[in-house]
């Protein structure tokens, strides 16, 4: 089986970007007030509400991790556009129903269902990858991830403000509307890549499998990066409080500013990483980004003030943001076209596990070892992932060639 792209151009790609901005904004629109919504459903204790919120987030991550490879295999057969429409339509219905629940148990069942049926990022990544013109895969994946990071910062900010003014339940209906808009943009303006049967023998087709051994370092990088990004959030307000001496009126604003600046830096890193990877190769960029982000994480636990912390978070987030689209480009280049849906599905599964492990691990580290621990441990994880890449023969050889070429150009 090989892939036959339908008519897709710059306008279709812009429509895909707009659809993903709407979808990501929608999914994160309801995140800031999830504990408050649980309290409104009858959970009286703020601590119990926070625990429920953690369970609800983990439930979606777990079911998405289990089902993402399955949806990837379906995408290999029917094309990624169908999977993107499935994820956005299903998300609109399921999240809309969350606005009508009357108990946290009902909300939990819907969150489990959301994880089973959604997963827009993996489908959009595959679609952008397969419809990119020759030589533009890295640039397009970087641009897509830039938009997703920007929406990830925009959604919680706007969602929290909306909930304060119009109410908690109404926010779920806005999310449903944004997801419906996303699906309409995809349906109307975005092309597809569809499977086309070739005349090759079945044995030859079966021989083009997925080189999992070579992809392990890439999947490890994705897991460590997403874990590092999400592990800081539970500890950040408490850590900021220790840095400002308990000035409660500044904690929320400072924490929000640090998170927002980090999201913008990650968006910029995604764009730059995609551009650079097109010239020097994805594995070199991943290796460098992992190493530099580890160095930026290392001193964060010992900062003396929020300005220092914010500056280091911006640097670390820039390099973390560069890894995600470049890792997706590495998957695209390593996997045969007829198996890329499966490979991206596994990558989405790894990312979902990281989204569940990160906040849980960060919270546990802060509770047992202090607020600095969630900033220190990712430095060692990122450094270990960089070491794995450095020991990979192809990445090492490529890095040496790039270094020699750069040195030769300087010596001229």
Write up this protein.
With 412 residues, the chain is mainly alpha-helical. The protein folds into two domains: 193 residues, Growth Hormone, Chain: A, CATH 1.20.1250.20; 205 residues, Growth Hormone, Chain: A (Up-down Bundle), CATH 1.20.1250. It is built from 17 helices and two strands. Strands 1-2 form a two-stranded antiparallel sheet. Helix 1 packs antiparallel against helix 8 and helix 7 runs antiparallel to helix 8. The longest helix is centred in the N-terminal third of the chain and has 33 residues. The N and C termini lie far apart (49 Å).
Secondary-structure blueprint:
Layout lengths: L1 E4 L4 H20 L4 H7 L5 H33 L1 H19 L5 H14 L2 H12 L5 H30 L1 H22 L3 E4 L5 H5 L5 H20 L4 H9 L3 H33 L1 H16 L8 H29 L5 H30 L3 H19 L1 H19 L1
Antiparallel strand pairs: 1-2
InterPro entries: MFS, MFS_dom, MFS_trans_sf, Tet-R_TetA/multi-R_MdtG-like
Main location: membrane
Pfam families: MFS_1 (PF07690)
């Amino acid at each position: 089986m090989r892939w036959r792209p339908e008519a897709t151009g710059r306008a279709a790609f812009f429509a895909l970007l707009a659809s993903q901005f709407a979808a990501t904004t929608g999914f994160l629109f309801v995140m800031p007030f999830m504990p408050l919504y649980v309290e409104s459903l009858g959970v009286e204790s703020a601590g119990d509400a926070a625990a429920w919120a953690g369970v609800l987030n983990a439930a979606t991550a777990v079911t998405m991790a289990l089902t993402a490879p399955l949806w990837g295999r379906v995408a290999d057969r029917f094309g990624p556009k169908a999977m993107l429409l499935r994820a956005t339509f299903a998300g609109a219905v399921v999240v809309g129903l969350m606005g009508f629940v009357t108990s946290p148990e009902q909300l939990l069942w819907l969150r489990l269902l959301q994880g089973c049926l959604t997963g827009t990022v993996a489908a959009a990544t595959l679609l952008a990858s397969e419809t990119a013109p020759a030589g533009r895969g890295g640039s397009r994946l970087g641009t897509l991830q830039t938009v997703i990071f920007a929406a990830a910062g925009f959604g919680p900010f706007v969602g929290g403000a909306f909930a304060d003014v119009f109410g908690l339940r109404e926010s779920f209906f806005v999310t449903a509307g944004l997801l419906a808009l996303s699906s309409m943009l995809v349906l109307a303006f975005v092309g597809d890549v569809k499977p086309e049967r070739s005349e090759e023998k079945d044995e030859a087709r079966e021989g083009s499998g997925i080189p999992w051994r070579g992809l392990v370092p890439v999947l490890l990088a994705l897991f460590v990066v997403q874990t590092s990004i999400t592990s800081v959030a539970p500890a950040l307000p408490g850590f900021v409080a220790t840095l400002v001496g308990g000035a409660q009126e500044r904690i929320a604003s400072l924490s929000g500013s640090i998170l927002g600046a980090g999201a913008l830096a990650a968006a910029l890193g995604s764009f730059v990483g995609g551009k650079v990877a097109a010239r020097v190769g994805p594995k070199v960029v991943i290796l460098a980004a992992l190493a530099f982000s580890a160095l930026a994480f290392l001193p964060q636990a010992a900062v003396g003030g929020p300005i220092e912390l914010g500056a280091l978070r911006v640097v670390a987030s820039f390099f973390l943001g560069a890894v995600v689209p470049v890792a997706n480009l590495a998957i695209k280049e390593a996997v045969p076209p007829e198996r890329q849906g499966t490979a991206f599905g596994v990558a989405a599964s790894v990312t979902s596990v990281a989204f569940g492990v990160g906040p849980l691990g960060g919270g546990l580290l802060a509770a047992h070892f202090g607020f600095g621990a969630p900033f220190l441990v990712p430095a060692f994880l990122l450094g270990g992932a960089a070491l794995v890449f450095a020991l990979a023969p192809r990445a090492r050889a490529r890095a040496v060639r790039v270094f020699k070429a750069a040195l030769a150009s300087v010596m001229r």
